[in-house]
């Protein structure tokens, strides 16, 4: 999978993915941090339930949809990580009111 | 292109394809002449309700025709599924019209009373419910909801899949479908109808005009009339969400795949390439006041579409007196009435006569000599 470059000296930022502490780097997008985490971060789609990972990483494809701090269907590739951020992998359709 | 058919149908939308399928079931040879994919098509721009409540004010026969369609929909659903394998997601567990504030509640209560007092209308058990009663059935309503009317016959369907199912099924029954061939003229010669298109001519013993608002132009070619008064409607569409709305509303429904559709505008503007954003804002605001949880959902698109609308809002079914064998059919509610078109109207056309006790009230002769105002047929 993904491996961080040895010369990447950015400050570490801790986020929580499904309750598991994950070390990201300052400036990572949520999607980049999830891909680098080594965890199974595949969401499932709203209708067919197909498993998907972030794809375009530039805000176009919407395959990176994820629940961030309790708000569903955020585009993870467009949101920078912050200390203590709570990430949930979205399974199927978004819940109403989240 | 030359063909001889029992029936030629002008228009391949929900109405034309329902009649074509119904005729195919009866063993008739049928040609459907249609426009192409870019046609302004109410079959692809509708709210997909199978709806009874509040229809027929001013014409009790329309109430009965609508109740009949609602009751026939399960049979249509089952037949389409068996033949094509497509599930059109029919849900008929009753529907609501919600009101915001006391004035709207009083207005709706008065409308329900007027509908009940109509002589000769079928009883379809439309009743007013208080906000507390509504909340038992729709737990997520907001505090501004004052109540609403409920009708147990109301429901909805996946109308795009219904459209596809009719086309799939009619072709399986041997119906010939000719897209990109709008009809420019119709003549009756030697006991048959000749329909001219840019690619040639179709000949048939009978012709059915099912071309939506274009019926207004086509009908006089065969001694019929179809006065139309189309309106535009706008819809706001959200991303898919977990099921939260167990009953459809006149203004909000959740599709079988989770999308929320919001909208009920009626506009005189007939350009469907533009949107009136203030109207979208009002519709979205009212939806949020009815269901505050909608606030976080993303809107993924909005669109406008042109309603097929006979001038007074009620359907038109006629056979020509000067050109026997030529029929016209137009209505606003092509989804709700699809079952009647597939079973009743197709049967009448196959037999060569409309049944006056079922559809006599819908003759366009009602427009003769008076200036019937534009209406919508529902409230």
Would you kindly provide a written description of the structure presented here, covering whatever features stand out?
The complex is a heterodimer of chains A (98) and B (379). Chain A is mainly beta and 98 residues long. Chain A has a single domain (12-88), classed as 2Fe-2S iron-sulphur cluster binding domain, sarcosine oxidase, alpha subunit, N-terminal domain (Ubiquitin-like (UB roll)). In chain A, 7% of the residues lie in helices and 29% in strands. Chain A is built from one helix and seven strands, in the order ββαβββββ. In chain A, the strands form two sheets. Chain A has a five-stranded mixed beta sheet with strand order 2-1-7-5-6, with helices on one face. Chain A has a two-stranded antiparallel ribbon with strand order 3-4. The radius of gyration of chain A is 13 Å and the shape is globular. Chain B is of the alpha+beta class and 379 residues long. Chain B has three domains: 4-82 and 159-228 and 311-367, FAD/NAD(P)-binding domain (3-Layer(bba) Sandwich); 95-152, no CATH class; 231-307, D-Amino Acid Oxidase, Chain A, domain 2. Chain B is built from nine helices and 17 strands. Chain B has helices spanning 14-25, 60-84, 101-116, 131-137, 159-172, 215-218, 277-290, 338-351, 356-359, and strands at residues 4-10, 30-33, 49-50, 95-100, 127-130, 145-151, 155-156, 176-178, 183-189, 192-197, 200-209, 231-238, 252-254, 260-262, 299-307, 316-319, 326-330. In chain B, the strands form four sheets. In chain B, strands 1, 2, 8, 9, 10, 11, 16 and 17 form an eight-stranded mixed beta sheet that branches. In chain B, strands 13-14-12-15 form a four-stranded antiparallel beta sheet. In chain B, strands 4-6-5 form a three-stranded antiparallel beta sheet. In chain B, a hairpin with a 6-residue loop joins β16 and β17 (326-330). The radius of gyration of chain B is 21 Å and the shape is globular. The mean pLDDT of chain B is 94. Chain A binds chain B through residues 46-47, 71-73, 92-98, and chain B through 140, 239-242, 244, 257-258, 293-294, 296-298.
């Amino acid at each position: 999978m993904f491996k961080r470059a040895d010369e990447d000296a950015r400050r570490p930022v801790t986020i929580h993915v499904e309750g598991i502490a994950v070390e990201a780097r300052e400036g990572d997008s949520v999607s980049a941090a999830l891909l680098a985490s080594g965890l199974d971060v595949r969401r499932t789609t709203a209708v067919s339930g197909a498993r998907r990972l972030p794809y375009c990483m530039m805000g176009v494809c919407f395959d990176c949809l994820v629940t961030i701090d309790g708000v569903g269907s955020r585009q993870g590739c467009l949101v920078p990580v912050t200390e203590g951020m709570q990430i949930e992998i979205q399974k199927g359709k978004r819940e109403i009111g989240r | 292109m030359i063909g001889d058919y029992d029936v030629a149908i002008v228009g391949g939308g929900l109405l034309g394809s329902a009649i074509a399928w119904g005729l195919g079931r009866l063993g008739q040879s049928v040609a459907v002449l249609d426009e192409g994919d870019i046609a302004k098509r109410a079959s692809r721009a509708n709210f997909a309700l199978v709806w009874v409540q509040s229809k027929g004010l001013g014409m009790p026969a329309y109430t009965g025709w609508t109740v009949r369609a609602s009751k026939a929909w399960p049979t249509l659903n089952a037949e389409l599924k068996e033949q094509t394998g497509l599930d059109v997601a029919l849900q008929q567990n009753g529907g609501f019209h919600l009101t915001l504030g006391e004035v709207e509640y009083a207005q709706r209560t008065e409308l329900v009373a007027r509908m009940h007092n109509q002589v000769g209308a079928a009883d379809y058990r439309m009743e007013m419910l208080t906000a507390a009663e509504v909340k038992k059935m729709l737990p997520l309503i907001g505090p501004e909801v004052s109540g609403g009317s409920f009708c147990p016959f109301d429901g909805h369907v996946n109308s795009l899949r219904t459209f596809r199912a009719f086309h799939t099924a009619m072709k399986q029954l041997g119906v010939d479908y000719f897209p990109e061939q709008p009809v420019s003229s119709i003549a009756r010669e030697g006991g048959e109808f000749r329909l001219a298109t840019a690619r040639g001519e179709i000949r048939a013993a009978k012709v059915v005009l099912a071309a939506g608002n274009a019926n207004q132009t086509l009908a006089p070619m065969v001694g019929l009339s179809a006065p139309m008064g189309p309106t535009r409607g706008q819809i706001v569409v959200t991303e898919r969400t977990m099921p939260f709305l167990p009953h459809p509303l006149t203004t909000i429904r959740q599709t079988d795949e989770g999308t929320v559709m919001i909208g009920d505008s009626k506009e005189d503007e007939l350009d469907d390439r533009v949107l009136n954003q203030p109207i979208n804002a009002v519709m979205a605001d009212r939806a949020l006041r009815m269901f505050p949880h909608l606030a976080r959902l993303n809107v993924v698109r909005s669109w406008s579409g042109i309603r097929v609308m006979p001038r007074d809002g009620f359907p038109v079914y006629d056979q020509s007196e000067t050109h026997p064998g030529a029929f016209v059919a137009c209505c606003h509610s092509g989804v709700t009435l699809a079952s009647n078109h597939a079973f009743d109207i197709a049967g009448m056309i196959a037999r060569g006569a409309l049944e006056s006790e079922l559809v006599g009230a819908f003759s366009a002769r009602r427009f003769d000599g008076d200036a019937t105002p534009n209406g919508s047929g529902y409230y």
